[in-house]
């Protein structure tokens, strides 16, 4: 997708610099509603140019990396560049447990990202990410990032890489895999079948010996047949092994009147600059 980050505040949780162990302990089950309420309040303050209040109530991680004056200036400039907001829908909620030996020097502990799909008055869409750190048993604001994208983009399925991709830094790979999982969940929530199917590798083999064509037809019917879908990703644990990765998480699925929660594992492979799903399983 042709998108670019307009601002990424220094206080924002940087997954690119954090190592996540595949065998990391499970994150405690904390309701997503708490994070959604907190993130919504933060966006309301950002809209009202009350970023000083955000810094005042922010985490120690934020305050150790950015002065209040710099934060206010950066937040105001980033928010103004986006323009008026028509409406927002939350896209994903991800909670992560980071280890002590991460590359960026962030404290070990529990962190969370809440991502919103934002419809702008300009007709474009933006992705807004609110980051939190768990401090003193409370979620404390850590950062705000905006990604703006051109509207109505159709993404074709990625072609297999003709040559092996050069290995990237482990932290960068973690961030790329996290972004791929977010994009997959966001496309599913938006019922955007082009983006959703593009998240799967050409080598992806559906379960039950189903053909790829039959599986795609079934997924189209099930997803587009719903009037609304929300897919939340929680307790995300990522493991990297060269050009392959695993992403294990709790999936909260809402569609019309249906509510389901399950454990899901995505096995991904690098294809060019992308991470694509080669296997998908539920349970465990």
Task: Give the SSE map.
Elements: E1 3-8, H1 32-47, H2 51-56, H3 60-65, H4 68-82, E2 85-98, E3 109-120, E4 125-135, E5 138-149, H5 170-189, H6 193-198, H7 212-224, E6 229-241, E7 244-255, E8 258-271, E9 274-282
Antiparallel strand pairs: 1-5, 2-3, 3-4, 4-5, 6-7, 7-8, 8-9
Describe the protein's architecture and organization:
The protein has 7 helices and 9 strands. The protein has 284 residues and is an alpha+beta fold. The chain has 2 domains: 1-153, Nuclear Transport Factor 2, Chain: A; 154-284, Nuclear Transport Factor 2, Chain: A, CATH 3.10.450. The strands form 2 sheets. Strands 1-5-4-3-2 form a 5-stranded antiparallel sheet. Strand 6 and strand 7 form a beta hairpin.
Q: Short description, anyone?
A:
By secondary structure, the protein is α+β, with helices and mostly antiparallel strands. Helices cover 29% and strands 36% of the residues. Strands 1-5-4-3-2 form a 5-stranded antiparallel sheet. A 4-stranded antiparallel sheet has the order 6-7-8-9.
Query: What is the CATH fold-level name of the largest domain?
Result: Nuclear Transport Factor 2, Chain: A
Biggest pleated sheet: 5 strands, antiparallel
Helix content: 25-40%
Dominant shape:
globular
Rounded to an integer in angstroms, the radius of gyration calculated over CA atoms is 19 Å
* Percentage of residues in strands: 35-45%
Number of strands: 9
CATH level 1 name of the largest domain: Alpha Beta
Q: In terms of per-residue confidence, which ranges show pLDDT below 50 for 5 or more consecutive residues?
A: 1-30, 150-171
Number of domains: 2
* N-to-C CA distance: 32 Å
Structural class assignment: alpha+beta
Give the helix tally.
7
Shape-level CATH architecture of the largest domain:
Roll
Strand order of the largest sheet: 1-5-4-3-2
């Amino acid at each position: 997708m042709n998108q670019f980050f307009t601002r990424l505040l220094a206080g924002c949780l940087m997954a690119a610099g954090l190592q996540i162990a595949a065998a990391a302990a499970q994150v405690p089950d904390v309701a997503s509603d708490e994070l959604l309420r907190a993130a919504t309040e933060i966006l309301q303050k950002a809209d009202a140019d009350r970023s000083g209040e955000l810094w005042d109530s922010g985490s120690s991680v934020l305050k150790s990396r950015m002065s209040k004056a710099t934060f206010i200036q950066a937040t105001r400039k980033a928010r103004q560049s986006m323009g008026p907001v028509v409406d927002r829908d939350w896209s994903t909620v991800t909670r992560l447990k980071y280890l002590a030996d991460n590359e960026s020097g962030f404290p070990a502990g529990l962190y969370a990202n809440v991502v919103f799909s934002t419809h702008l008055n300009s007709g474009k869409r933006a992705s807004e990410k609110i980051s939190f750190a768990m401090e003193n048993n409370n979620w404390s604001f850590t950062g705000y990032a905006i990604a703006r994208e051109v509207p109505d983009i159709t993404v074709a399925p990625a072609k297999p890489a003709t040559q092996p991709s050069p290995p990237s830094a482990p932290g960068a790979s973690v961030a790329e895999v996290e972004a791929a999982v977010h994009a997959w969940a966001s496309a599913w929530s938006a019922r955007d079948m082009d983006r959703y199917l593009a998240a799967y590798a050409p080598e992806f083999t559906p379960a039950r010996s189903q053909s790829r064509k039959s599986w795609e037809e079934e997924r189209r019917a099930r997803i587009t047949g719903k009037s609304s879908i929300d897919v939340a990703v929680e307790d995300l644990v990522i493991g990297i092994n060269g050009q392959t990765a695993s992403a294990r998480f709790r999936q909260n699925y809402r569609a019309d009147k249906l509510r389901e929660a399950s454990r899901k594992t995505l096995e991904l492979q690098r294809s060019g600059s992308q991470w694509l799903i080669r296997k998908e399983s539920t349970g465990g």
